[in-house]
Specification:
alpha+beta; 13-stranded antiparallel sheet; two-stranded antiparallel sheet; 4 helices; 15 strands; about 40% strand
Length: about 260
């Protein structure tokens, strides 16, 4: 067999192996063993914008759970280099105050890129093979937006936090104001006119530490019948999502006081 054909077959084999390794989803992380706190509810507040009230009545009826902490284990895909990589994650929230992410992208189900990032005590951190930085002002702004956007998985936060507030826009849209340092940030939140469910939220966010201008950042959720909902994160200038997240397990009101300050799973 001519050497050129051998090289071609080796290349095809390598491409197939690479493709196959990126098709295998990793096993989700097991939930950490943490003490369980008490649960309580509060009545649905009066005076909410119409689409917001319909949404919360659909999700919770007229009693809203008080969610102090959340631990989320899930899987999905990310494309930090333009190629979709399988991923698994654990997201930990002290709701409306702090959060920590641990993410692994995988090849044949085995981790090869690990990311620790979060926002604790008003300071962001990002630790990965692509770079490391702490308490960067642009990153703090973006991390605070992530803190609130991920409330889409536990939206009671948007009603029970004393500094979150809503403003009416129209029958399918509302503005959510959330605290950031000594001021506020805003999200445009859109709801499905037929199901009343949350569809997407939009905010202006710094994309990297050195950026001078913010970029429109969109988080969205797609629900299909008999399938888990998929959450997406998209930078408007990219035009398509850079991450997809599916929740495998979620637990509320655990004692995360030490766990949220750790690293890794």
């Amino acid at each position: 067999m001519p050497p050129l054909w051998i090289a071609f077959l080796v290349l095809v084999a390598l491409i197939f192996i690479l493709w196959l390794g990126l098709q295998i989803q990793p096993k989700p992380f097991a939930m950490p063993e943490l003490p369980q706190g008490e649960s309580q509810t509060v009545p649905l507040p009066e005076g909410l914008p119409a689409p917001v009230e319909r949404y919360f009545r659909t999700v919770y009826s007229d009693q809203i759970p008080v969610i102090n902490t959340v631990v989320i284990s899930g899987h999905g895909r990310m494309r930090p280099f333009g190629v979709w990589l399988p991923a698994r994650f654990v997201f930990t929230h002290n709701a409306g105050q702090n959060y920590r992410h641990y993410i692994e992208t995988t090849f044949f189900g085995l981790p090869f890129l690990k990311v620790n990032e979060g926002y604790v005590d008003g300071k962001s951190f990002f630790e990965s093979p692509m770079g490391t930085y702490y308490d960067d002002p642009n990153s703090n702004q973006g991390a605070n937006l992530a803190l609130w956007a991920e409330g889409a998985w536990f939206p009671a936060l948007w009603l029970t936090h004393p500094k979150a507030r809503w403003q009416a826009v129209d029958d399918t849209t509302a503005i959510l104001y959330v605290p950031f340092e000594d001021t506020e940030e805003t999200f445009v939140v859109r709801f499905n006119p037929h199901t009343s469910q949350f569809e997407m939220m939009e905010a202006m966010r710094f994309q990297s530490p050195n950026d001078k201008n913010k970029v429109l950042w969109i988080t969205s959720e797609v629900r299909a019948e008999n399938k888990p909902s998929v959450a997406y994160a998209t930078w408007m200038d990219a035009g398509k999502p850079w991450a997809e997240f599916l929740v495998d397990e979620m637990r509320f009101n655990l004692d995360v006081s030490e766990y949220i300050r750790a690293r890794g799973q």
